[in-house]
Design a protein that fits this description.
This protein is α/β, with parallel strands linked by helices. Helix content is 42%, strand content 16%.
């Protein structure tokens, strides 16, 4: 017997055979079930067998976007689609974001919610909301939410999900709603369970993401969250209209900057990844908002290349991790622009601690200083950019480094072992 939320299970590979096999395709929420035929559907109440009228949501789907388009893997294609997905995110209906911002403003307490990649997106949101709106919003991994969160009618729970079907996140949202909390979400799939259940949904419009590894959806969510933090900061008078417009202009420049990096730096990143693909242990270090960037970049390396990678804040080094530095540990350090003076200096101190112990450091930075053998073992120099968008550019570099490492190791890039696109079980 099918249970609530169960998905259609095909008989063999023939959908028509499945329809012939059973008409009881799926049990829905709210005590309803759907009967499918080849050409139609009927939704009925489980209690009284009466038909239930349901609105039809048309999902725009361009079949071309689901093809590789000449790329060797969907992952690379989706990385290269990020300039367009950022533009799509910036073109979202303003009223939708304004409604979410109003929810943040009214809530006495708020949480960011996600798991896996979207938890790191949530951690990024914590930093950007603190910086631009002076509002502290703790991120909680969805699978730990019931243990940690204290929610009530004055709480807002804001979730992130690519598929909108992530079991742990849906469970946390249902729990929050049972306590009377308001809920909102950024979701990439229209009509998904999460999009339908929350009080307010932001559909990010990134298009289908075929590769199991999330790249463009995660970056798009970070852009939406940055824009939301800017709007909240303006509403709370934390930033001026002038600063808001300057930040908005920086975001508008982001697609072209990322396109330039993809065109001009990919070959160099490929060379470095191929050169060091046999390194078995990596530390990914970042301070401040670069900490969640380090976490997400390390996750990409684990997911797609099956290489041990650990993201951590740079300050952790002197609290035990320095003891591990030797010729079997490699480090990647995400260096902020010089305009972030304190963050920049503290990051350099972390690099110096590693180099003093003869540790390998790949430095990813924005300063046009040329090769610096004393500071870096290898370096990737990026064009100078506004500080607001610098972490997002660093993330793209992390995605490419993981991808090229995986291809050098001949991994199954689009379908890594033991992973699924949407985790629908607890």
């Amino acid at each position: 017997m099918l249970g609530i939320g169960d998905e259609i299970k095909f008989v063999g590979s023939d959908f028509n055979a499945f329809i012939d096999h059973t008409k009881n395709a799926v049990i829905l929420d709210d005590g309803e079930y759907a009967i499918l035929s080849r050409d139609s559907y009927v939704v009925k109440s489980i209690l009284n067998e009466e038909e239930v009228a349901k609105p039809i949501t048309k999902i725009e789907w361009d079949s071309e976007t689901s093809k590789k388009g000449g790329y060797p893997h969907y992952m690379l294609k989706e990385i290269y689609e990020q300039p367009q997905t950022i533009s799509n995110a910036l073109d979202l209906e303003p009223s939708g974001l304004d409604d979410v911002v109003e929810m943040f403003e009214k809530a006495e307490s708020s949480y960011f919610l996600g798991v896996g990649t979207t938890f790191y997106v949530a951690k990024y949101a914590q930093y950007i909301f603190s910086e631009l709106a002076q509002k502290y919003i703790p991120p909680i991994s969805s699978d730990e939410f019931l243990t940690l969160a204290n929610v009530n009618k004055k709480t807002l729970v804001f979730a992130m999900s690519q598929s909108g079907e992530t079991f742990d996140t849906l469970s946390a949202l249902k729990y929050s709603q049972s306590k009377g909390a308001k809920t909102a979400a950024i979701v990439n799939v229209m009509g998904s369970s999460m999009a339908r259940m929350v009080d307010e949904v932001v559909l990010q419009g990134s298009g289908p993401e075929i590769c199991v590894i999330s790249t463009k959806a995660a970056l798009s969510q970070m852009v939406v969250l940055t824009l939301s933090a800017m709007k909240l900061g303006l509403k709370r008078k934390v930033i001026s209209k002038k600063t808001y417009q300057e930040n908005l202009q920086s975001l508008k420049e982001l697609p072209a900057i990322i396109q330039g990096i993809l065109n001009e730096r990919s070959g160099f990143i490929h060379r470095i990844a191929n050169k060091y693909c046999k390194n078995k242990n990596w530390l990914y270090l970042g301070r401040g908002i670069y900490y969640p960037i380090a976490l997400e970049a390390a996750l990409k390396m684990k997911e797609v290349a099956y290489v041990h990678a650990e993201g951590m804040p740079g300050g952790f080094l002197k609290h035990g991790t320095l003891a591990m530095i030797d010729d079997e540990i490699s480090s990647i350090v995400f260096v902020p622009p010089k305009e972030k003076k304190d963050l920049y200096q503290s990051t350099l101190h972390s690099i110096e601690e590693i180099r003093a112990r003869s540790g390998f450091v790949l430095g990813i930075h924005f300063t046009e200083q040329g090769k610096n053998q004393d500071l870096f073992s290898e370096e990737l120099i990026l064009p100078n950019v506004p500080p607001l968008i610098a972490p997002l550019i660093q993330l793209v570099i992390g995605q490419l480094f993981a991808y090229f490492t995986a291809t050098s190791l001949k991994r199954n890039v689009d379908k890594p072992r033991s992973l699924a696109k949407s985790v629908t079980v607890g």
